[in-house]
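Office hours follow-up: a student asked to see two folded examples consecutively, so here they are.
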Amino acid sequence: MSQHQVHAVQQLAKVMGWHVLSFSNHVGLGPVESIGNASAITVASPNGDYAISVRNGPESGSKVMVQFPRSQCKDLPKGDVLQDNKWNHLRGPFKEVQWNKMEGRNFVYKMELLMAALTPC
């Protein structure tokens, strides 16, 4: 089931114009699953501003993280290290999505809504 959901995200990303950055059916990081393996995928929005990372395990379930542009991250420390404006185009840290509070009947529908909300007009 975890591989199926990650494959669904991959196909949904292709349909919606998102770019697949990484994909793995056998993730070696995170909690060890007693049955099966965890799967993961990271996709980027069409303009590259946002990234969504999904880790799905047979026991641990789904964990969805969104990475926002640095310009939208208010909790990043302001320092003198990054003075050149070219570094402002990097994305900031990942933030976990409260998946159980998202609108939608199933995993694919929730993912479609999330991608649609983060896709520029």
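And the second, which I mentioned at the end of office hours:
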Amino acid sequence: MGALDYLSNFCTVTSTRSKRKPMQTVEIKVKMDCDGCERRVKNAVTTMKGVKTVEVNRKQSRVVVSGYVDPNKVLKRVKRTGKRAEFWPYIPQHLAYYPYASGAYDKRAPAGYVRNVLQAFPASNAPEDNIVSVFSDDNVHACSIM
């Protein structure tokens, strides 16, 4: 059966079909003023190949697209409508450790959201930070070291 296996390798059809994009959700911030703007953005994104659902929230200036799509292509398609668009820069306020840190608090953010910046999260536990805390006034056991 070795010869048949060898010959069957030449007869098999290999698929040249590309890998399918993973299912993902893309959130985009788009400034929309009226129903026409909302409709134009929704129609532009709905016609894309691989899009399953499109949710447009004009009050939050937010568009949520779910499907087998490339996020950069979705952003490009929304920008092609003539609207200023960017990826959704906000996170829920309860996820940020320091929501009022500089750069995190944004007056234009929807209610309950803050900007996703590095300063809103605690610093890493680097060894230098631990050494500095040994000699701080907040450390009760600082006098035992000295």
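Two things to take away from it. The chain is about 30% helix and 20% strand. The radius of gyration is 26 Å.
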